[in-house]
Amino acid sequence: MSYQEDYSEHGRQTDSSNPFASDGFAGTPEESRPLSHSVAQPTGIEVGGGIGGGDDTTAPAAASSTQSSSSAHGAAHAAASAIGAGFETVKTTVTSSLGSLANLLPYEVQESGELDESKSKFGKVTVGEPELRGGTFTSYTVYKVVCSAGSSEHVFRRYSDFVWLRNVLVKSFPGIFIPPLPPKAVIGNKDESFVESRRSDLQRWLQRVIVRNFLADHEAVSVFLTRATSQFESDQKELLKAAESKPLADIVSLYKDLWPEIARLPATDGIDRDIDSLRDFLQQSDAKMNTLVQATDKFVATSFAATNDLSKMSSLLQANYSLEKEFQLRLPASIASKGGIPARVDIAENVEAWYSSLKWSTNAFDDLLLNPLKFESQDIGVMLDVLKSRAELASKYTKSLAKAQKWTSEPRYHPKNEKQEIQKAADEAQARDEGQLLQFVTHLILHAQFDQFWTFRVKQFKRRMNQFANHQMEATKQMHETWRAIAATTAS
Q1: DSSP 8-state class, residue 27
Q2: 131 close to 117: Cβ distance less than 8 angstroms
């Protein structure tokens, strides 16, 4: 199998019904992971059952390319070292008291580059055959989306439609990692190489979504994959509005059904410290990873430039050989009469082989070195968004809790009529729902999402570096044979 085929991220999933059993971070399942027990004991007014459903559970408290390749390599090495050091610091804080919930995150590793149709309700899903539509000044690209188990043969979707789907999922599942889309581009978005790169990234994104059963079961995913364009456009606003207006109580109830193990987790102290540690680490990691990506990008660009220069060298050398051979055929008589001139040793084919080996080696830099770092950087950004979403929920809960407590804080605020009793009940229900959702999201972050996110990243990095190293060893072997041939040719 070639490294291009092995590198494919598409369609890795498991047959587990547990939503976190399929990796949501890059598409490859992992083994079961131990879980941290670091969620604070909730405090505040008693407004009903907690996420575990017990009557005595209370709502949780609020949480608070001009550089050289050598310089680029040095910056990349420094950034990578700093990221590793930062993780060791946060790991001692967040997972200092690891526990284990048996079978919470079971995995069945599937290394195939294709999505197993038997394990997806939509079968094999592909994004392909981009088409340019519209007028001269209003042109746009659509992508043909096909799912083998769908009711329709295929549909066409724009990049903005993928953005819509992700927005619906983010609204529908607050505090949950929803894979990042490839970034939007304003300039060069009609370029053939860009369109192909985006097509590949959109397919990778879509399959990251559908391998997580709870995302695949969302109505918006089915509509996106199967609804005809005319009807799809009319459904978009309605589905987004429904996601934005979904009652918090319904979201909490859904989360309890999806993750009953999380709902039963005990609450412990240290929640703010752990969340702050995660945020600080991810913010530092984000900055350093961006620097690492930039340095690697410059290194890759320099490598491609060197490869292109070698191609020119090979062509010019061949042209020089041709010129000299022609001159040999029409030597001036005075020089020809003396027996002519010696021909230059011909290493044109060897230099061409050198170029081919270098090109083969450099092509792997994008697939096995740069792109994985870009994907990781994007995923770190989403994890920061998850923490930001939790912070916003905590802020809302603080306000709702204060509003609900006001009714019982002083006699003058006690309800004095039926209307106020109704308002009191509504305020307490709002605080209860926001508190339960906040606690559930916090459990998910600390007990599953971050641990799974990081574990996948280090495993993926190890696997990609192994592939890259093996590929480079083969390329180096080819170059070694090329230089051996040149040495043999020029020895006598």
Answers
A1: S
A2: no
pLDDT tens digits along 117-173: 556 678 788 998 888 887 777 788 999 999 877 666 789 999 999 999 999 999 999
Which tokens hold the place of 403? 């509003």
Residue 488 in tokens:
């043999």
Q: Are 151 and 225 a contacting pair, CB within 8 Å?
A: no
CATH architecture assigned to 111-247: 2-Layer Sandwich (3.30)
- The CATH number of 31-101+265-332+345-492 is 1.20.1270.60
Confirm if 111 and 20 have CB atoms less than 8 A apart: no
Sequence-ordered list of residues with C-beta below 8 angstroms from that of 185, at least 6 positions apart, any chain = 194, 198
The pLDDT tens digits for 335-373 are 988 888 999 999 999 999 999 999 988 988 988 999 999
Per-domain boundaries in the chain: 31-101+265-332+345-492, 111-247
Cβ proximity of 201 and 127 under 8 Å: no
Return the sign of the alpha-carbon dihedral for residues 368, 369, 372, 375.
negative
The pTM of the full predicted model, rounded to 2 decimals, is: 0.76
How far apart are the C-alpha atoms of 347 and 188, rounded to whole Å?
A: 40
Q: What are phi and psi of 11, to 5 degrees?
A: 80, 20
